[in-house]
Design brief:
4 domains; disordered N terminus; alpha+beta; 6-stranded mixed β-sheet; 25 strands; globular; about 25% helix; Rossmann fold; 8-stranded mixed β-sheet; Immunoglobulin-like
Length: about 525
């Protein structure tokens, strides 16, 4: 079986459903505008599983100087869920791996995650320099380091090769959200100002925008308020995908870390970004995965943003550190020391867990306290979503394949051409009906296609899955919209009657299309 349309073939990876797959070397050139990864598809094996509803949180206890304090027991802590006292059913005190030569070295994996979409071009060289000093100092025995970026343009998988790590650093460039330079003229609204106006967080920023608009268009106060709110909503909707994409890639890095043996540390270097209520489930899912995989997330908030603005844009970074037993450092002048500190692990931290009640689909506030322990600071997970586990993208695709329902949410049609002992399948997709995400001049989309052949009795015969990554420039997009996108594959089959089940999933709006086509080979 072979896929066509002149697409460069790649190995199908575990993270194939995201546009930026992890690869073990830095990208020295721009990726192709259209590429394909493919593999055989087989029906998922039936499984019997028990779903644990344990809610876990990393906890660090620090004294006034910021030193981690150990020696506490489960009974020393009080944990509440929405103000209700909970019994701690899981407790562990975690210590940094011993450096004694008498003990075997514990494998250790450090992921440096540069949020190059929310870092400025002016600041990036400073952060790259701090990372260079960290790498040149040498990796301790048993440690591997990887470099990952929000944009996906630079990736180095976990390695002990410091030369490969150093070579990747100069390739990290700023892919800044254009909304941070202002999306509108009068009033001037940036992504941040639109967010705080829309969410009702900063009345001062709202008044500034209203007065500016009144001066431009001679509107009344009420008229200007209505227009400013509409503009703020539109600006935020046009820019929020920069934050959600960062979370998507962060989730992949956490999942990749989970597969590594030993200690797992993720250092997030970011200028921070706003997050609204719709992003909370996405953030909670990442924190759940990181906590259960024992991934410690340390955050370095490095842009010169002070006071109230910094509180707004670094919420996610602070929550990630608190939830996983990690640390967050903000606005330090000692970047070298900060990065070195965060690349390590706390001397001691704790992991606590409890069994919640039935999921109610709501956000629950958590609080961990140490009664009668004045002068100590406790960092822990601020809350969680009490929801039942949602299926993964692959599980949703598999369920659509195994179903017989016809779904028309994606503009795709199927043509079957019977040949001698071969069936040619052409999937025609109309790009004019696809929504593309924007990254600079590039239009981004990803299509996952599954073709399955069954015999007349409904028995599985053969299957194929492919992921088509589209990172196209305007000229290529216009050409595709004119001619259509045609994906071709073929199956070698004996004479007989068959059914083709075709499923197409697009990433940007997360829609699925499915169809059934009868085949007869004579």
């Amino acid at each position: 079986m072979a896929w066509g349309w002149c697409l460069r073939r790649r190995t199908f990876a575990d993270v194939a459903w995201l546009a930026f797959a992890l690869i073990p070397v830095a990208r020295s050139a721009d990726p192709p505008e259209v590429s394909i990864r493919s593999a055989a598809w087989k029906p998922p094996a039936p499984t019997i599983s028990a779903q644990s509803n344990l809610v876990e949180s990393g906890v660090t206890v620090s004294d006034a100087r910021g030193n981690a304090i150990g020696g506490f027991k489960a009974g020393d802590f009080i944990l509440t869920d929405n103000g209700k006292l909970q019994a701690i059913t899981f407790f562990s005190e975690l210590h940094r791996s011993s450096t004694s030569t008498a003990e075997p070295v514990q494998p250790r994996n450090v992921a440096l995650f540069f949020d190059d979409v929310h870092l400025t071009a002016a600041g990036l060289p400073i952060y790259r320099q701090a990372a260079e000093k960290l790498i040149r100092a040498g990796l301790p025995p048993g440690e591997r380091m990887g470099i990952f970026t929000d944009s996906g343009t630079v990736t180095v998988d976990f390695t002990t090769d410091t030369a490969a790590l150093l070579a990747a650093l100069p390739q990290i460039k700023s892919h800044r959200d254009p909304g941070e330079r202002g999306m509108t003229v009068c009033p001037t609204l940036t992504t941040y100002s639109a967010f705080v106006i829309k969410e009702g967080i900063d009345e001062g920023e709202k008044r500034r925008a209203v007065y500016e608009l009144m001066g431009c268009d001679h509107l009344t106060w009420d008229e200007a308020v209505g227009q400013v709110m509409d503009m703020a909503n539109n600006v935020w909707e046009n820019s929020r995908h920069y934050a959600t994409n960062a979370l998507d890639v962060l989730k992949i890095v956490v999942g990749h870390l989970e597969k590594q043996e030993g200690t797992r540390v993720l250092v997030m270097v970011s200028g921070g970004y706003p997050d609204d209520d719709r992003m909370k489930p996405q953030i909670a899912a990442i924190l759940d995965a990181a906590t259960r995989a024992r991934v410690v997330i340390n955050s370095l908030a490095v842009e010169s943003q002070m006071g109230f603005r910094q509180l707004v844009v670094t919420n996610t970074m602070t929550d990630a550190a608190s939830s996983t037993g990690g640390r967050v450092i903000k606005n330090t002048n000692d970047l070298d020391g900060a990065l070195s500190t965060l690349a390590g692990t706390a001397e001691v931290s704790y992991l606590v867990g409890f069994q919640p009640g039935e999921p109610d689909g709501k956000y629950h506030t958590l609080k961990v306290a140490l009664p009668n322990r004045a002068g100590l600071t406790i960092d822990a997970r601020p809350g969680y979503f009490a929801t039942r586990p949602t299926p993964t993208v692959q599980q949703r695709i598999d369920r659509a394949v195994l179903s017989r329902d016809v779904i028309r949410d994606v503009a795709a049609s199927v043509r079957v051409t019977p040949l001698r002992n071969t069936v040619k399948v052409t999937v025609d997709i109309d790009p004019k009906h696809l929504k593309f995400a924007k990254q600079g001049e590039l239009h981004l989309q990803q299509l996952t296609l599954v073709s399955v052949i069954e015999d007349a009795q409904g028995n599985f015969i053969a299957g194929k899955q492919a992921v088509v990554d589209l990172r196209v420039k305007p000229a290529k997009l216009a050409s595709m919209q004119s001619t259509g996108l045609h994906i071709v594959e073929s199956f070698s089959l004996p004479k007989g009657v068959y059914t083709l089940r075709e499923v197409v999933r697009e990433l940007v709006q997360d829609r699925i299309g499915a169809s059934n086509t009868a085949i007869e080979l004579r």
